[in-house]
Fold this sequence. Notes:
By secondary structure, the protein is of the alpha/beta class. It has helices at 3-12, 29-37, 48-57, 91-103, 127-135, 160-181, 196-201, 211-214, 219-230, and strands at residues 19-23, 42-45, 63-66, 84-88, 108-113, 145-151, 187-189, 206-209.
Amino acid sequence: MSIASQLSLVRSTLPENVRFVAVSKTHPAEMIREAYAAGHRLFGESRPQEMREKYAALPKDIEWHMIGHLQTNKIKYIAPFVTLIQSVDSARLAEAIQREAAKCDRVIDILLEIHVAREETKSGWDIEELKNYVGSAPFARMPNLCVRGVMGIATNTEDGAVIRRDFRELKRCFDLLQPYFGPRFDTLSMGMSHDYGYALECGTTMVRIGSLIFGERDYAAETERAEAEAVE
């Protein structure tokens, strides 16, 4: 099936209030152009240098979301144009984004990534640590950041009960944090190609879907690129 038809198929399963990030990481700009021609404007990338290259090559009305782990020394590649950084998993990263955003004279929207999965390898805040950090009002001292909500990844399992548990915990965390930030705290990003149905059940407002649109990623090429970017 074509990218256009897959986009249409996914959109048909989503409520009007749920936004849809087409995860284009590792896929070439030509495939993003196909999705763009079909009317899609919101794309997610996980590597700053790759996002920068695609931004330079593609139309400027695209909304770019950073969805992967972000190193502080790589923020500079995307700070001038990124729309939303979904993967803010530490105070150190938030503070570094503030510095780069200030250099660009921009306010960058962010999501706070919370760890709910049973795999320790997944990144994200512990909710109690995050509550303590937010409670000390550090974001009042970061005028170039706007905290829009939370993001998380469920346990990699076929067990729907476990996935639902993870997504319900993310929704609980979202509700717990919302009073600290007010009405602009409106985004709960959870659910990917294999589990977004559960995320919809649990109240997500944004899903991140890649393989259903663009096909499976080329993991060998992804590893090679990651190694090359690590030395930049």
